[in-house]
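Complex 231.
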Amino acid sequence: MIRENILKVKKLISSACSKTNQEPNLIMVVVVSKGRPIEQIKEVIEAGIMDIGENRVQEALSKYNKLITHNSKLQTIKWHMVGHLQTNKAKEAVRIFDLIHSVDSLRLASEIDKQAAKINKVQDILVEVNTSGEATKFGLQPKEVMGVLKEAEKFKNISIKGLMTVAPMVDNPEKTRTYFKALRELRDEINNLQPAACSLQLLSMGMSDDFEVAIEEGSNMVRLGRAIFEG
Ligand SMILES: *Cc1c(COP(=O)(O)O)cnc(C)c1O
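Predicted structure with pyridoxal-5'-phosphate bound:
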């Protein structure tokens, strides 16, 4: 089932891309495997997707330890932290994650920088933005982002690759469009103010219910759980 679901998702990504003249191969699919067993993650890897997302450090660590020792193919998995990260978990997070999507404060960025320095790593991160302003959502307010990026320039052990957002739950995916558009416009605005060398490339936006709209609005990294495991 997982293999079929991946094929189905790839087709939907292609048709979303064709509407806006984008190249489907440039859309990264992160399969979010929170709450799913190791066996299912192996199926995802067998089907050719190497980007795995988790939303809790403890669960990720346990899966990482089980998978990493298994065989060399599994060692090439790229691990993504997509959930809220507490500052006191930064130390463990930098040990396993290739990309942390959910950096939502200068304090967290600073702690990630400090912990990454200890292991001589430059940690790739995204800045999470609360594009809907919902009180229940994590993320910086859009107007805070530029200031945080400026301050974060002094951190030598983080590399900010782009922005991430989680759209509100809505009855019709069309209603998420405005939030995705807002994130893309914010990214473009920031890039216009910065030297090209530090431009933000990644836009992590779109989940199972709304990834097609997100791609139409410029997403290049979708985070999919149910569309892959439940279809
Ligand atoms: C769970 C989760 C996803 C995947 O959600 P689905 O709706 O199952 O695709 C994506 N992003 C984040 C931050 C998540 O917590």
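The beta strands are 28-32, 51-54, 78-81, 99-103, 123-128, 158-164, 202-204, 221-224.
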